[in-house]
Amino acid sequence: MTKKTLFGAACALFAFTCVAAAEDGVATVDKRHAVFQKVCTTCHAMDNVGGRRTRAQWEDLLYKMIDLGAKGSEKEFQTILEYLSSEYGRVNVNRGSTSELSAVLGLTAQQAGAVVSHRREHGKYEDFSAFAKTPGLDTTRLEKLRDALSY
Ligand code: HEC
Asked: Model-level pTM?
């Protein structure tokens, strides 16, 4: 299988299983963490994931690890992607979808919807203080997630 085929297949698969994972919502953080530990610590320790990344960046990293020889089922890689992008995610508040905003920042569907309508009506958020003014957000909690936000 060429690299291109593998990446193409993995992409399609990731997109498909992402929807499935979001729908069933069964894998708890603990279960996701266990899969991550099992697949990702065979070559190196994973005490430090090296900081937050966007979902797309985590996906790129997983492809890189697969290329380097990481072994796991497609479902396991999908679970790891969910785990990393919610626990160590970063989201662009001007471009992230409602599901990305919810996954990374723990926003309710209503709060994520408020972010999307706010930026549509008022334009781009320039910084944290602009973002924090979105009605309905818990700014005290978001304050702790500043490093998960990009603009
Ligand atoms: C087959 C062995 C192997 C497995 C399994 C493996 N890795 Fe790696 N990983 C490597 C090697 C080799 C490097 C160093 C290569 C480099 O940095 O270019 C690396 C480097 C990394 C880095 C630092 C480099 C970067 O690009 O940020 C991260 C983060 C990482 N791995 C995460 C993971 C995750 C998450 C998993 C589980 C999906 C995983 N690794 C599974 C071999 C592996």
From this structure: 0.81
